[in-house]
Amino acid sequence: MNAGPDFLHAEIVIADKLWSGSVEMHVNSSDWNLHHHSTDLSYQNVILHVVWNHDVEIDFLRQRNVQTLILQDFIKPEIVYNYETIIQSKFEKIYCENFISGLDFSDFSFWFERLLIERFEEKTEVIEKMLSENQQNWEETLFKSLAKNFGLKVNVEIFELWANSFPFKVLQKIQYDALKVEALFFGQAGFLDEVYENDYFKQLKNEYNFLKQKFQLHSISSHLFKFSKMRPIGFPTIRLAQLASIYATHQALFSTIIQLKNSQEFYKLFDKLELNPFWETHYTFKNESKSVNKKLSKDKINNLIINSFISIRYAFERNNNEVEIDFYLDLLNEIEPEHNSILDEFERLGFVNKSAKDSQTLIHLKKRYCLEKKCLNCAIGHHILR
Questions:
Q1: N-to-C CA span, the chain
Q2: Of 8, 57, 85, 237, which one has the greatest count of Cβ atoms within 10 A?
């Protein structure tokens, strides 16, 4: 079923005469007949037919003296050629890379900021969905956002399952005791179902058995977590220990982050984090390793600030109509740039990546414009096609 003309209630001046009605658009004028518009009452008041290719006269429109606007008569062939070259490109990287040599990317600074705001808004939608699932509890929503972040791409779904496996209020009741927090985290992940002889493991297991009985907890299986093809520092056991250190140190984390004023105050959140000494010589409960500091790296801290702390604070202020966008632009500008394969592509082509503000902008550009081939909606693409 047709939904009706593309534009309703239009007013168009043709040869000094004002026409009021609807406008219909097609690639080929013959599409009018293909869609049987002549017999559809909703198309009776069409005043203009806009097409790319005028391949046939439409009797219905000619009898009513309705004009046909042929777009290809007004667009230079080289623009069409450039567009088709970009859209049909076989590049797996930046589709327009052969056209951007010599561009001054500073000319697009205003549009880049708009991209960043788009990214904030997109993340806000995700957070608001989580917030709804968590009965509008911002502290719980932050915890589950952090859990997904610690899961990385490999274990994100498992960490999300883990974070939902116990009531958040249980964590809040035991946060004063680091060992209890660790016991809850490892126990709910199923890592305490095994038998190991070290004292730390036995302490965790005893604590968890008490918590499990007291709060009627049910763990997930440790076999769900993936370890293969990962650097040991990224093992789920290490990430759980790091997350436990955050929540054993900060009892009201969300209430804290919405008060912070600059990047240095965000970084101070991580100054006093301590992992249990056991993890200095272990990556898992099973095998001992050489002594390595397992504290959060600067890159991971930046990742947490960018993708969890800033995102949820923006969503909270957006929810209360209190967003000061310059605060977020300045904050990201103070944080070191991210580095990944996407950003390597842009840097190779001359794009600036000197701060997290640049990184987040370019990631959004790639994911929401380049990969979706929205060249006509992209300021750079629009400039090239002109």
A1: 37
A2: 237
